[in-house]
């Protein structure tokens, strides 16, 4: 059993994984945290396994900087099992900026067909713009409540406002950041 007490202990326990993460520009002090969040990584056969490297190169090839990929891995180590279809949908269908993936890499942990697409299509149908976490990081029931709420908290150029969904549809550059109780 692997117990991560400190990054230096991890270095001795799983040197191939540590070398691999360091090769992905993950800082030494973050390695223990990455392994605590994604302990399955300690069992990966790094030598001879290309899927993690392919995922890393895939992100780099999509215009995300080395530093941002490292930040994403530290925040959400499960990204190492990244799905290409989710990225394609994010970029091509949703047309969102890469910065959003850096801010919410957990996007890749949600099922594309079972969660991302259906919720995104509902937002599009209602004409609501929102952050990734606002529509993904909630239960289906909470999502429905948000869609039909009387008042929604929005952020426009750094200032927060409360408004009705219809008025929000008219607001330019509105990003939903939360919901106020009815």
Short description:
Strands 2-1-3 form a 3-stranded antiparallel β-sheet. The protein has helices spanning 7-13, 15-23, 28-37, 51-61, 66-75, 84-93, 99-103, 112-126, 132-136, 140-147, 165-170; strands at residues 152-156, 159-163, 175-179. Helix content is 53%, strand content 8%.
Keywords, please?
182 residues; mainly alpha; 2 domains; 11 helices; elongated
What does this 3D model show about the protein?
The chain has 182 residues and is mainly α. The protein folds into two domains: 7-95, no CATH class; 112-179, no CATH class. Helices cover 53% and strands 8% of the residues. It has eleven helices and three strands, in the order H-H-H-H-H-H-H-H-H-H-E-E-H-E. It has helices at 7-13, 15-23, 28-37, 51-61, 66-75, 84-93, 99-103, 112-126, 132-136, 140-147, 165-170, and strands at 152-156, 159-163, 175-179. The protein has a three-stranded antiparallel sheet. Helix 1 packs across helix 2. The chain is elongated, with a radius of gyration of 19 Å. It starts with 6 loop residues before the first helix and ends with a strand. Residues 157-163 and 166-174 have low confidence and may be disordered. This is Transcription regulator mTERF family. Keywords: Transcription, Transcription regulation, Transcription termination, Transit peptide. One of its GO terms (molecular function) is nucleic acid binding. It comes from Helianthus annuus. Belongs to the mTERF family.
Annotate the secondary structure layout:
Layout: H1 7-13, H2 15-23, H3 28-37, H4 51-61, H5 66-75, H6 84-93, H7 99-103, H8 112-126, H9 132-136, H10 140-147, E1 152-156, E2 159-163, H11 165-170, E3 175-179
Antiparallel strand pairs: 1-2, 1-3
GO molecular function: nucleic acid binding
InterPro entries: MTERF, MTERF_sf
Organism: Helianthus annuus
